[in-house]
Amino acid sequence: MARRKKVYEGSAKILYEGTEPGTLIQYFKDDAGHGEGDTQITVEGKGVLNNRLSEFFMTGLNGIGVPTHFIKRLNMREQLVRMAEIIPLEVVVRNFAAGELSSKLGIAEGTALPRPIVEYYYKDDRLNSPMVAEEHIVAFGWATQQDLDDMVALALRVNDFMSGVMLGVGIRLADFRLEVGRVWEGDYMRLIVADEISPDSCRLWDLRVVTDRSDNQPVAEPGPLADVYNELARRLGVMPSNVTHTTKPTLIN
């Protein structure tokens, strides 16, 4: 069997040359980023679940006319995807205040935003992917103003779809990030959703969890979705029947 040529390896995925011209094979790893210091976090079965979940979301988006790079799932850990020129930006859509937005602006976590907010982050690990304005993006040639307009429209359509799907299974989509790629069809260029859509790129809160105040009065305050990979796959009905999964990450030095 011929050895496949690796094109790229990130913290959560590996890209190989595809079986057809203009395609790539996207392999989902069990790595879940990094903890403190140089400790790598591995969640057993995460790659299998993310492969199924990303397939579910990308297929749904394709079905409503939102273009993505997804072609088909090949096996438990791999997908065949369209090759695209990735725009070096992470597009973040926020529906509720959380994380950096809360800490920097002093907005209480969980506050509903007046409307979805779209932010851009320049993809560069050496710089910790800083937030950038549209002026930076256009000035440095990362994308045109038309690209940005199209990216916002694309991101908001994804947000509408994802928010509805999540709400249907008792989950609040607080925020998520997207990567966008350019593809050419003859002389025509269009933007598509690339990379993946999975728990790794979403902040999800469980609306079915009820927390208690100190006076023991129940209040409906959503909290983080426990065992997010397993539970999300179970609620969406995409859990592979022959996969077991640990509820806690395993630390690998």
The major sheet is characterized as: 8 strands, antiparallel
CATH topology of the largest domain: D-amino Acid Aminotransferase, Chain A, domain 1
- Percent in strands: 35-45%
Structural class designation: alpha+beta
Total beta strand runs: 18
Low-confidence stretches: 34-38, 244-253
| H/E element sequence | EEEEEHEEEEHEEHHEEEEEEHE
Describe what you observe in this structure.
The two termini are 32 Å apart. The model is unreliable at 34-38 and 244-253 (pLDDT under 50). The strands form four sheets. Strands 8, 9, 10, 11, 12, 13, 14 and 17 form an eight-stranded antiparallel β-sheet that branches. This protein has a five-stranded antiparallel β-sheet with strand order 1-2-3-7-6, covered by helices on one side. A three-stranded antiparallel β-sheet has the order 4-5-18, with no helix packed on it. The protein contains five helices and 18 strands. The chain has two domains: 6-83, Phosphorylase Kinase, domain 1; 85-206, ATP-grasp fold, B domain (D-amino Acid Aminotransferase, Chain A, domain 1, 2-Layer Sandwich), CATH 3.30.470.20. The chain is of the alpha+beta class and 253 residues long. The chain is globular. 25% of the residues lie in helices and 36% in strands.
